Amino acid sequence: MKNGVTLEQLRKHIDRLDERLLRLLNTRGRLALCVGRIKKRQGKRLFDPARERIVLRQVLKANPGPLSTLAVRAIYREILTQIRRLERSA
Fold this sequence. Notes:
The protein is mainly alpha-helical. The protein has helices at 7-42, 49-62, 69-89. The longest helix is centred in the N-terminal third of the chain and has 36 residues, at 7-42.
């Protein structure tokens, strides 16, 4: 492999990144639970399509690749779907 990096080293690095991603997603989920409680107290709708469009627009703009716009959009739509479920359970 290039620069003497082995497949095993790359996989270990990916595994560490996956753990970081999971921690970040769970942090996002905990924040969503707080948001859901606040929305319920204030009598606001849990689903805010305008906010979701803003989130998608921001992540797509921040995407340097190599993931395509289509891939990032699909990933974030799923994240937002799961976050919405958490907000409803708050």
